[in-house]
Amino acid sequence: MLSLHRRVLVPMAALVALLAPRTAHASPTTPDTVVATTVSSSAIRLTWHDADSVVGGFSIERSLSSGNGFSVIAVTSGTVRSYQDNGLGTGISYYYRLRAFTGNDYSRRSNIATARTTPVADTTPPSVPTGLTATASGCSQINLQWKAVTDTGSSGLRGYRVYRNGVSLVEVATPSTAVNDVNLPALTSYTYTVSSVDNAGNQSGVSAGAAARTASCAVVATPTRTVTPLPATATPKRTSTPLPATATPKPTATAVPDQTPPSAPTSLSAAAASCTQLTLIWSGSTDTGGSGLRAYNIYRGGTLVKVVAAPATSTGDTGPRRRHGIHVCCARDRQRQQPFGLEQLGDRQHAGVQPGADRERRSGRDGDAQRRGHAERLGIVRP
Questions:
Q1: Does pTM surpass 0.70?
Q2: For 204-239, what is each residue's pLDDT tens digit?
Q3: Among 48, 83, 116, which residue terminates a domain?
Q4: Number of domains in the chain
Q5: C-alpha–C-alpha distance, residues 200 and 122, integer Å
Q6: Nearest to 90 by CA among 124, 45, 40
Q7: Which positions ≥6 away from 137 have C-beta within 8 Å?
């Protein structure tokens, strides 16, 4: 009976074990504190921490960007906590992340770690610039231009150094290949050279020289204003309305003041037009002073009664009915008056009479007879 009982108990234990519920296996813990450290110009070392003591392994991913492009570069065992990535490019930044796994179960991805391989020192200078030209622009400037160069080192091209007569003048940043040398003295020759420089400080040899000479600066003289007097024969603009007797002529500015009066009018004659009006006619004057003839002053009895604008040589005079004074015609230029002229009373003429001078008073019978004789010759009928 006992042996039979034992045979029954064994199968029952196995059955219980088979029927008991199985415990689910948890996913691996996510690796943390991933650190990337530069080892050399071609290697980066990774280290990390994982809370699980035993995992199947770690999957290591790498990219050149922190946002995308990750791919698996290595798979390690679950017992290691570091990895060295070799064979990398010089001076390049790389980005890494990890996942732990056990069988087909994977953890979440770790933080992203980055490092840059050490750049190789650039000891190669860029090429020498060519095609340098120097062109003078005016009397104080020379324009320089050359061809661009390339840099075969890893640092890249920084710019160009320009020399004038062997002395450093200026450094021009890339990509410019031209510069103007200004504020130079006139009639001076200069020789220029140029070299290239990279970001590591390597400098090429200097280019072939280019020479130029500044031009002469023309002296600009201040123009002198010259006023040319009118010729003696110039005729002023004709005006239809005579100047009023009280008008004061405005002098015309000339380079040299006109101090020469015009010539005295000649051949003055007076003819009665009616019992109250005389018509005066004379020969015109000329002006040699440069300002030009302007007008004639008409005097009666030594008093200015009218101004007749040139070129007119006649006018009418309305005077007293019974008596007619002595008429004098004087020419005037644009600056002064000819003080001499002709006087006429009836048919008498006197050359060289001073206008305004005192006239001899005629009295007595001889004076009256003379005036009556003039009146008859002029056709004036006195009542």
A1: no
A2: 999 999 999 999 987 766 666 666 666 665 555 655
A3: 116
A4: 3
A5: 6
A6: 40
A7: 143, 180
Helices (H), the chain: 2-19, 364-377
Does residue 7 belong to any structural domain of this protein? no
Q: What is the pLDDT of residues 8-36, one digit of tens each?
A: 444 554 444 445 444 455 788 899 899 99
Torsion of CA 79, 80, 81, 87, to 10 degrees: -160
User: Which residue in 242, 248, 245, 332 sits closest to 285, CA to CA?
Assistant: 332
Per-residue pLDDT tens for 310-338?
A: 889 999 887 655 455 555 566 666 665 55
Which are the contacts of 222, defined by CB distance < 8 A and separation ≥ 6? none
Do 95 and 145 fall into the same domain?
no
Chain centroid, CA 229 distance in Å: 42
pLDDT of residue 252: 54
Does 176 map to a domain? yes
Amino acid at 38: T
d(CA 163, CA 77): 64
Residue 194: domain span: 133-213
pLDDT in tens, 157-173: 999 999 999 999 999 99
Do 44 and 109 lie in one domain? The reply is yes
CB 342 within 8 A of CB 328: yes
Q: Structure tokens of 3?
A: 């042996």
For residue 144, the cross-strand partners are: 134, 179
* One domain, residues 204 and 151: yes
Count the Cβ atoms, other than its own, within 10 Å of residue 274: 12
Look at residues 81, 116, 151 and tell me which one is the last residue of a structural domain. Answer: 116
- 372 shares a domain with 273: yes
The string of pLDDT tens digits covering residues 129-138 is 999 999 999 8
Q: Is residue 260 assigned to a domain?
A: no
**Alpha-carbon distance 176 to 179, whole Å?**
8
Distance CA 153, CA 120 (A): 10
What are the φ/ψ torsions at residue 366 (nearest 5 degrees)?
Answer: -65, -40
Q: Are residues 203 and 301 in the same domain?
A: no
CATH of the domain at 155: 2.60.40.10
